[in-house]
Design a protein that fits this description.
- By secondary structure, the protein is of the alpha/beta class.
- The chain has eight helices and seven strands, in the order βαβαβαβαβαβαααβ.
- It is 45% helix and 14% strand.
- A seven-stranded parallel beta sheet has the order 3-2-1-4-5-6-7, sandwiched between helices.
- The longest helix is centred in the middle third of the chain and has 29 residues.
- The two termini are 29 Å apart.
- Bound molecules: nicotinamide-adenine-dinucleotide.
- The site of nicotinamide-adenine-dinucleotide (NAD) has 30 residues, from α1, α4 and α6.
Length: 277
């Protein structure tokens, strides 16, 4: 549909079931792309737990499901907080598919929420290191290959409504996502000369694994039932619903395509009109 056949796409944080990354992967497979599915693979350190991540088994299952439909994908475990792992991720991508055309920086931690007076230094670091530093590291190494290839590229950062507005109990998350927009704009200005476009997508609430945890957290905080809390979010949305993973996946396909050839440095809301600046 978008003339992306054979493009090589790498999606971080793509292993977890029902996540935005998984939907983005399927969308690019449908477009005829070759896809690298990357995720942390196993929980590391005190701030991570296997309940909240995409495991190596999850990645393998997704690769197999894609192969069963005739698509081409590989899974590579990578903790985006560490440069040596990120460097290896891109080296293996080039080894396998020969190039990299599109990077989707999707890996994110959104379940370490706490009053700002109680946020631990280790949780702050886990959120900032994954959401912001991880986006920087993946961009750095993808852009090196894209510049060497000499045919441009597209980098899409999954930011958030929290990149534009403040949210309680989410100091680290909100700060990291605001930072992602700064990084997006700086990289767009700097990498434009190589034909590399850099954009961000800002979704509002989507009930993924991460979103489900947030529903539980905020409904408890507000003393509402889970369903009443979810309804309250829908009620304040101009389109009367929460987001779908496919809403983000469609936007990524558009932004990666030539249909968006003159769009860079953009922070596109995908929020049903809830966020509009
Ligand atoms: N769900 C929402 O409401 C919502 C709204 C706006 C933005 N987002 C953003 O969308 C992205 C995807 O979120 P999701 O809702 O699909 O949640 P998710 O939990 O399904 O996906 C996040 C993925 O990131 C991976 N990850 C976490 N730390 C990592 C690390 N250090 N290295 C590599 N991978 C790591 C996890 O394993 C997981 O697979 C995140 O960046 C999130 O902040 C989500």
């Amino acid at each position: 549909m978008y003339n992306l056949t054979d493009k090589v796409v790498l999606v971080t944080g793509a292993g977890r079931r029902n996540g935005i990354g998984e939907a983005v992967v399927w969308r690019f497979i449908t477009e005829g792309c070759r896809v690298v599915i990357s995720d942390i693979g196993s929980a590391k350190g005190t701030s991570f737990s296997n309940d909240h991540i995409g495991t190596t088994d999850d990645m393998n299952r997704l690769v197999e499901a894609i192969a069963a439909q005739g698509g081409q994908a590989i899974g590579i475990a990578c903790d985006v907080r560490f440069e040596n792992e990120v460097e290896h991720l891109f080296a293996r991508t080039i080894e396998t598919f020969g190039r990299i055309d599109i990077l989707i920086n999707n890996a994110g931690v959104g379940y370490l929420m706490e009053a700002v007076t109680n946020v631990s230094e280790s949780d702050w670091d886990a959120v900032l290191d994954t959401n912001l530093k991880g986006t920087f590291l993946c961009t750095k190494h993808a852009a090196r290959h894209m510049i060497r290839q000499g045919q441009g590229g597209s980098i899409i950062n999954i930011a958030s409504q929290a990149a534009k507005s403040g949210f309680p109990f989410a100091a680290a998350y909100t700060a990291s996502k605001h930072g992602v927009l700064g990084l997006t704009r700086s990289n767009a200005v700097e990498l434009g000369q190589y034909g590399i476009r850099v954009n961000a997508v800002c979704p509002n609430h989507i009930t993924t694994g991460l979103g489900h945890w947030q529903n539980q957290y905020f409904s408890n905080k507000l003393g509402l039932s889970y369903d009443d809390y979810l309804q309250s979010i829908k009620d304040r949305n101009p389109l009367g619903r929460t987001g779908l993973v496919e809403d983000v996946a469609k936007t990524c396909a558009f932004l990666a395509s030539d249909q968006a050839a003159y769009i860079t440095g953009e922070a596109m809301n995908v929020s049903g009109g809830e966020e509009y600046h």
